[in-house]
Amino acid sequence: MTRHESNASIPWEQGASSHPGGRREQQDRWGLFQSPSRQELLAIVADGMGGHQDGALGAQIVIDTARSFVLNPPKLLQSDPLAALDGLCQQMHETINQQSETARSTLVMVWLTAAHAYWLNVGDSRLYHFRRGRRIMRTRDHSAVQLLMDLGEINESQMATHPAQNRLYRCLGGEESPKADRGDFAVQAGDLLALCSDGIWEHVTEIEFWTATQHHGPADAARLLAEEAARRGGATADNTTLVLLRAGNNVAETATWLRRLSAGFTSLFNRVSR
User: Fold this and answer.
1) Cβ neighbours for 54, distance < 8 A, ≥ 6 positions apart
2) Which pLDDT score, from 0 to 100, does residue 179 have?
3) Which CATH architecture does the domain made up of 12-248 adopt?
4) How far apart are CA 146 and CA 246, in angstroms?
5) CB-based contacts of 149: which residues, under 8 Å, 6+ apart?
6) I want to staple 28 with a disulfide (CB 3.0 to 4.6 A). Which of 117, 188, 214, 239 is the partner?
7) What's the confidence (pLDDT) of residue 156?
8) Which residue ranges make up each domain of the chain?
9) Where are the beta strands (DSSP E) in 92-175?
């Protein structure tokens, strides 16, 4: 299933897709939500936990809360986006607990402005940032296998198949307040962002995110990779969900304009100082 919420005013090519894998129920959720000004975009993936209906409920609450947040954005979102995203995360956590004692969810989201990305994650759903075919960053999982990798006991390629892969120590919902990781980075034209549940990264290599998008574009690439991850997982494959965002030329134009403006101010300052 693929759904798109896009507009030409957003300088991002967008694509997203989910596949149930070998499961009877789809407990992953995703969303792409534009701000009222249509100049910013929130992309989000949530992987429900807690078993059967409660897992789906947890992930759906995450998406519904995010939609309301973007439609009625707080002023803090303009002045301090990371603090605003952290507040949204806490709101999601509290809403899950209000509606269910057992529902849980992972979370990865990114708030995109003209040429900047602000991200936050809890659990093992990931954000990747690629530039010219090379991975610039990925979010760090809150999982047992991530800790093993940090200790040097396994390498990154072994994370997907390790027996402890599904053991998380942070999530939304439950007694403990979530401690999210968060950060930001500048974006250049052609950059690729990938948000995904663990059903994707267990079976899709990093280079495949880039090459599939180059050959097919984000929309078709998301669909093909979600289906391929489910196929590779076989009869027991987890749900797969992938959002792909590729920065268009408008991002480069914005960055160039800012550099020229900055250079103009520097030149003027130098002349005045003499």
Assistant:
1) 48, 100, 102, 103, 104
2) 94
3) 4-Layer Sandwich (3.60)
4) 27
5) 155, 156, 158, 159
6) 239
7) 82
8) 12-248
9) 104-105, 107-112, 116-122, 126-131, 134-138
Q: What whole-number distance in Å separates Cα of residue 157 and Cα of residue 202?
A: 9
For residues 199-227, b (16+ Cβ closer than 10 Å) or e, as one string?
bbbbbbebebbbebbeebebbbbbbbbbe
At 166 the pLDDT is 81
- Environment class of 263 (CB within 10 Å of its CB; exposed 0-12, middle 13-18, buried 19+): exposed
3-state secondary structure of 105: strand
Residue 96 is predicted with a pLDDT of 97
Look up the pTM and report it.
Answer: 0.86
Count of all residues that appear for the chain in the document: 274
Distance, in Å, from the CA atom of 160 to the CA atom of 157, rounded to the nearest integer, reads 7
**What does the pLDDT read at residue 137?**
97
- Residue of 177, 175, 28, 31 whose CA lies nearest to 91: 177
CA angle 227, 20, 107 (to 5 degrees): 100
- Euclidean distance between CA atoms 26 and 18, whole angstroms: 8
* Rounded average pLDDT per 10-residue block, the chain, 274 residues: 40 95 93 93 94 84 98 96 98 97 96 94 98 97 87 84 85 94 96 97 96 96 98 95 90 45 41 40
Residue type for position 258: L
d(C-alpha 97, C-alpha 107), whole Å: 15
DSSP state of 185: E
Contact of 221 with 213, CB cutoff 8 Å: yes
Torsion, CA 107, CA 112, CA 115, CA 116, rounded to 10:
-40
The two structure tokens encoding residue 2 = 């693929």
Confidence (pLDDT) at 147: 86
